[in-house]
Amino acid sequence: MNPIAITMGEPAGIGPDVILQLWAKKPDLFSAEKIIIIGNKTVLSERARALGIACDCDQLPIHDVPLSEPCIPGQLNPNNARFVIDMLTIATENALQKKCAGIVTAPIHKGILNDAGFSFAGHTDFFAKYTQCHTVMMLMTESLKVALLTDHVSLRKVPDCVTEENIARCLTIMINDFQNRFGILKPRILVCGLNPHAGEQGYLGTEEKNTMIPVLEKFRQQGHLITGPIGADVAFTDHYRNSADVILAMYHDQGLPMIKYTGFHEAINVTLGLPFVRTSVDHGTALDIAGKALADTTSLHRALLFAAKMRAHEITPAA
To answer: Which domain holds residue 184?
Structure first.
């Protein structure tokens, strides 16, 4: 199997830190057969010194991507924004050409990329546009998986996105990936309602009655194990969580608080629907602690292990 690519993320953030700190803890993970780091060798060398890690970066499997200007930990530089785009482009091309078995991403800073003139809504959006695929964002811990119908969309716009077409597309992607990359042939999907109490039969909102129930019923008639719509206030109780492989939330802050609550440091992000495996840490750039040896490596470690597990389960390319 080809190695998994790790992208270094925002050079001024903790992406370099967690990569180096994980290497220091588990060097066996970083053989050229298992991992290739797509990043900047100079940044990694300088960060290793700042962290007090005795690491010869010439011995690490690094695809060196040029940086426009020197990087100072914790200080964003718009002139280095191009580096992030180049890094992600190289990783994507390698994945599409089967030169790597999947991609694990360290955090980037969307604000500095947009300030530098790049229209950038996040990793998931970048990969979706580059591959021209529809995707679904899913966050997961050891005990909970939550997929999102909408992700980085303002709350005001969410109801307009709750359409039969979007729900059907999302469920199809989820079913395909759970079958082909998770080894679950009949995934049990629990769908949250949009409104309080899932609309209360139309009295608290009509999206469930007019849009969600008809499309969910079509999937049930096809033999899929779909439950819902269920009020989000009870969807995450043990009774429902234990009867589902994954919960589909309608919007970002409906589903993710439970992920953060159940496993803040261990959560990872998985992109469903791509023609390759992609996982990510579920934390930001943490500029305030970059270079200070305070970053937690748990999420990166889990993202790497789960990417390898997904790749091992893979049967056919995602639809």
So the answer is: 134-268
CA distance 53 to 14: 15
Give the pLDDT confidence of 206-242 residue by residue, as tens digits: 999 999 999 999 999 999 999 999 999 999 999 999 9
Both 99 and 7 in a single domain? yes
Residue 102 sits in the same domain as residue 78: yes
Q: Which of 236, 251, 248 is nearest to 159 (CA)?
A: 251
Whether residues 222 and 187 fall in one domain:
yes
User: Are residues 184 and 284 located together in one domain of the fold?
Assistant: no
Q: Write the pLDDT tens digit of every residue in 89-123.
A: 999 999 999 999 999 999 999 999 999 999 888 89
223 vs 75, 149, 272, 318, CA distance in Å?
A: 53, 21, 21, 20
pLDDT per residue as tens digits for the range 292-311: 999 999 999 999 999 998 88
- Contact yes or no for 88/104 (Cβ under 8 A): no
